[in-house]
Design brief:
Number of helices: 5
Number of strands: 0
Order of helices and strands: HHHHH
Largest sheet: none
Structural class: mainly alpha
Shape: globular
Distance between the termini: 50 Å
Helix content: 55-70%
Strand content: under 5%
């Protein structure tokens, strides 16, 4: 039986976003959903909700180590992502639905490409000048 004193003696576990893993499948599902929304039958509220979700995914992926310093293609993706995340580009209530829809698709495409880079990066065997490849990566 746990006593009250024992519960209080246990130090709290601090969980930060840095310690949480990225759920690739959840992000991929959100991106597929955003990219397959039909403009003709999707409400503005649904488009706005998807924009919010995809911007969150994009921000999350940009916080990961994706080879920015060594890969020009990744640097280009980051430039595109920063341009899309610029608050000046964020659609407002006055933005026409089609422009908001186009913004959603552009943002989802860049997020998809960053997710692909993230997935490749996390699956790649770790190599260094004095390191052996991970077992089973040959």
């Amino acid at each position: 039986m746990t006593t009250m004193a024992q519960e209080h003696d246990t130090p709290p576990v601090e969980v930060t976003t840095d310690s949480l893993p990225i759920d690739v499948e959840c992000i991929r599902d959100g991106l597929i959903h955003a990219l397959t929304l039909p403009l003709a039958t999707t409400t503005r509220e649904d488009i706005d909700a998807s924009v919010h979700q995809i911007r969150g995914h994009l921000n999350l992926l940009m916080g990961e180590e994706l080879g920015y310093d060594s890969e020009p293609a990744v640097r280009d993706l980051f430039r595109q992502a920063y341009a899309l995340l610029d608050l000046g580009r964020l659609p407002s209530e006055e933005t026409p639905v089609f422009e908001t829809f186009a913004y959603l698709r552009d943002t989802a495409r860049v997020a998809q490409r960053l997710l692909d880079v993230f997935d490749e990066f996390r699956r790649a065997p770790v190599h260094g000048p004095d390191m052996q490849p991970h077992p089973g990566s040959a």
